[in-house]
Amino acid sequence: MAPGGQTLTFLFTDVEGSTRRWAADAAQMSEELATHDEVLREVIVEHRGELFKHTGDGVCAVFGSAADAVSAAIAAQDRLSLPVRMGLHTGEAEERDGDWYGTSLTCVARIMDAGHGGQILCSAATAALLPDDVERRALGEFRLKGLDRVQTIVQVGPGQFAPLRAGPTVVELPERRTSLLGRDDLLVGIDAALDEHRLVTLVGPGGIGKTSTAIEAARRRTGLVEQIVFADLATVDDADGVVAAVARALGVTVPGVAAIELAVGVADVLIVVDNCEHVIDAAAEMIEMLLRWRARVLATSREHLELDGEVVVRVPPLSDDAVAVALFVERATAAGAAQPAPEEAHQIAQLCRRLDGLPLAIELAASRLSVLSVDQLLDHLGERLELLSAGRRRGRDRHRTLRDTIAWSYDLLTLDEQDLYRRLAVFVDWFDLDDATAVAGRLRPIDVLDRLWALASKSLLIVSGGNGEARYRFLESIRDHAWEQLVAAGQADELMAILADHLGAKLAELGRQIWEGPDDDPFRQMVGLLPLQQHALEWALGRADAGRAKALLVPYGAALPISPPGGFAGATRLTELVESTGGSDVEVMTLGLIETLFHRDFRPYRATISKIVPLVELTPPSQPLMNMLIWATGMAGDESLQRRVLETATGLTGPFGLFVETIAFPSEYDAFEGPIVSAAGFAGPIEERLTRTIASIDAMPTAAGRGVMCVNAAFVAQALGRPDIASQLADRALADNPEPSSAWVAAYSHKASLHLARGELPDALVCAHHVEQMARRLGEHSAFVPVLAIHALVLRKLERAEDCGIVRGVAPRRWSLFLLRERDEMDAWLGEQLTPAEAAALAAEGRAMALDDVLAIAPSAVTMRLDNM
User: How far apart are the first and last CA of the chain?
Assistant: First the structure.
């Protein structure tokens, strides 16, 4: 065995023509093979190698040095009577259970396969380690099956042999004028598919780079086949044209399939058949014949050929920002634009993502950089089909502009498929079969499904099978083209109205299910529908359709306090629209109130709450409305208004009524006296309420509802001075509400309180940091209140009165009901440490600071304390 850690050289041998020899004289072959085995075993041992495998008519051995391995091969050839071909390669490998594994083994096997009986071949890596007196001759560079890199093959010893079986390939492919970036993994997959199958079809939308990828994949087969040719079907329009294009590629001057068969029959050939989609039936028929004649075919098309044995490889968009940026910069400079500045990389990456990573779109956009800046390109992406309308004076017409390449696919659709394609333009994001059926006219779902799959198979829709149900989406560029067709057909407003009505009904049902079950998917579905909801809402508001706008917004109120704040974008505009007509809709006013709370400030919305609550007391409230108002008054810390809302809502029943019943009034906390003896034995009205709350959690039918109940119970426990119970309930709330939400914010606030009570200040700041990250990502202004509260309370624990005064002054005077007891204690302490004038000056200083600077005060103070300990 070669010592561990040394460079290993492998020797593989094989008897040439062994099958024929066995058939001619089995007894003699058996005798000769026994001698063969003995000779190889002896020379391998004599040269300090190890024979680790028999392969029937050959052996595999490993040596600690290349010189020993080659000496063994030369000695064996001198003594063998059978025609044995031998291959050697030096490299790394892994030993497992007495065998060896790795690409080095693949390499040595392929080198051996390329040789002839009596010939010894080795890799350049092995040849470089041989003594100068070993005779050797480089035979050239060859691409070997299964290996990504071209290998230099060297013959060891004398002798003249036939050309290697990995002989040079006749390559007749178009030259690519641009780099092929970001396709390495794809090319490896195509190469592996071509190793195992004789028909591989690259499928993808126009402009995705199928042709360039196919040319490079074919070029990488050099050395594995005798001939590689390229047949372009872009300019043909019938079966005769397909036959003629393939004949031209093969150099056949006599027209007809018979001549093609003869040409294919005399060579091991790989044929790239490009652009099959517009003559799909004729192309499939031709390719089927080529396969029958043993040719290997790499096809490109916007839909697969549906032939037996076909392997479909989908060419994806460029998803790596760095690759997309590199392509943009390369094409921009090639078009004469100045090299973009390094600081523009972020905007270029954003631009490429907006172009769906479509190489053609990126190249066309890059060609505009000579007359537009990157920021201007981003600003004009709303008109991308016009923006990307030039850049190529020559070449196939369908690739001269982005519109041309998409129109090429559209023109190939049937009239029924074109109709659905236009209708689906109302979807700006993922949609499912139910959504598509709603806008498809009077088609049955099964008919819609057939047409969806037709569009997907022609690379006009992206399909995702997540969560067991197929969803669909246009690339943005394709969706822009579909929208143009919908507008030209005069159907845009009609279809948008249908979409708005469909989404309103769907969201209302999901909002109900969040509280009543039967499962927890509704919340995730509502989050997933936000892009479509916002698109439909913009349309409704733009046409002053207050009814449809309200239907699209109210269901997100039903989901509170677990819905993302993005669900309320546009509520202020709806409120202004209703008020402009002289109306006063309580639900609309509440929606506008919450949007202000989320994204603006706490101060101006208190007057709005005061206006809404009296209206609520006069009008029986809907559950979604009460849900929103309870949450809004709680976030504001407005105890009197929250009490009025809760008292109005006490008649509600079912899970929502249970939710209301378990809310405690903060004003009762100060009157509470007496210890909490156990979770099961509380005494007094507030303890009883906490006991009832904890016991009722499992009654909620959904995880979302249980999460909210846990937060409510934690809130009561917190006010009673039991942060341990509050933290346990918060952990359960986080488990039931893994997505960032208002319940999620409250849970982290309760956990921070426990850390504060224990003096675990870094852990309290970690909780605040989680909430801060969510607030920044979602743009939720209200979530910064508990963040600031935790930071201020940490500084209180450190007894840094001035720093605490700065942070306390940034938060609202009456912050949300989170950490209420701690706030009151801190305010009393600050009153002892600071005069009113000092407190006011510190608060003004905090409000003048950037938020990042304010949030850096407490972490710095904690770090300083730890350093001094």
Answer: 58
